[in-house]
Automatic annotation (TrEMBL):
PANTHER family: ARAC-FAMILY TRANSCRIPTIONAL REGULATOR, TRANSCRIPTIONAL REGULATORY PROTEIN. It holds the Pfam family HTH_18. The keyword Cytoplasm does not apply. It comes from Dyadobacter beijingensis. The keyword Zinc does not apply. Keywords: DNA-binding, Transcription, Transcription regulation. Residues 180-278 form the HTH araC/xylS-type domain. Gene3D superfamilies: Homeodomain-like. InterPro entries: Homeodomain-like_sf, HTH_AraC, Tscrpt_reg_AraC-type_HTH. Transmembrane segments: none annotated. This is AraC family transcriptional regulator.
């Protein structure tokens, strides 16, 4: 039975995750897709340069520009959803699910949600419904799958807020929207905009106002957030491409490669060439 919908460039698929599937999931076939992993306890995976061990059923949200490696599979099977932006774009449909900047493209790089018992039961039912829809293969398959995907994203966004934000912040909707907006701006412009003042211009506010909001949200300083995103991309390019440190500096908007190398050394404790060799 096929559990992949593919029509007019729109794709969504659902696979079971087990020890036998790890090589396929780690391979190049799914690199270009947006990915959601539901993993029971006992799994170990790497997303970019962070490792995660699941102690309980957990959802992971992985963008196409992130690097995923499933290192150890647990005893129980999980689920792997993959889809493209033609099937569902969270930016275009932001008012529907409001997950961009939280589940995806998050400046704190926390792509996971640990699940409570009622959430585990809900998702178990959701995955069964999705498999049933694939088996039925009705003409309404596409719209049903999109509905299930939106349900998953909305429930996961609520859970993410519960786990990662304090109650007072969750209650302050304007602060949460600021958090998401800043996150999305950094993700969009980090290669050309490197200072807090750049983002203050986008947001029509003073740089110190951004700093105050970050303090209230208990986030790192905004300048650190911007630099951390730049360094993450530099690490990806060092590990996954053959670009030189000078070429990477230019790629990330630095006209002075020596300055960029000093920044990288300050943030990581290693030179770009040292990081590449050690990794």
């Amino acid at each position: 039975m096929s559990t992949v919908f593919n029509n007019n460039l729109k794709t969504l698929g659902l696979l079971q995750v087990s020890k036998e599937q790890t090589e396929i999931i780690n391979g190049p076939a799914y690199k270009e897709y947006i990915k959601i992993l539901y993993l029971p306890a006992g799994y170990k995976l790497r997303v970019d340069f962070a490792c995660y061990d699941t102690q309980q059923p957990t959802l992971f949200f992985i963008s196409p520009n992130q690097y995923l490696e499933l290192e150890i599979a647990g005893e129980k099977s999980g689920y792997f959803i993959f889809y493209n932006r033609d099937f569902y774009c969270i930016q275009i449909h932001d008012q529907e699910v409001a997950c961009d900047g939280l589940l995806f493209n998050n400046i704190r790089n926390m792509p996971k949600v640990e699940l409570l018992e009622n959430e585990i039961a809900f998702l178990g039912g959701l995955f069964k419904e999705m498999i049933g829809e694939f088996q039925l293969n009705d003409s309404s398959l596409e719209e049903m799958m999109r509905t299930y995907l939106k349900q998953l994203l909305i429930r996961a966004t609520r859970s993410w807020k519960r786990q990662h934000l304090t109650h007072d912040v969750t209650d302050q909707q304007s602060d949460l929207e600021f958090f998401r907006k800043f996150t999305r701006l950094v993700e969009e412009h980090y290669k050309s905009k490197h200072t807090v003042a750049d983002y203050a211009d986008f947001l029509c506010m003073a740089p110190k106002t951004i700093t105050h909001k970050f303090n209230r949200l208990r986030l790192p300083q905004p300048n650190e957030v911007i630099k951390n995103r730049i360094i993450l991309e530099a690490k990806r390019l060092l590990v996954h491409t053959s670009l030189t440190a000078k070429e990477i500096a230019y790629e990330l908007g630095y006209s002075d490669p020596a300055y960029f190398s000093r920044l990288f050394q300050t943030k990581t404790g290693e030179s770009p060439s040292g990081f590449r060799a050690n990794f």
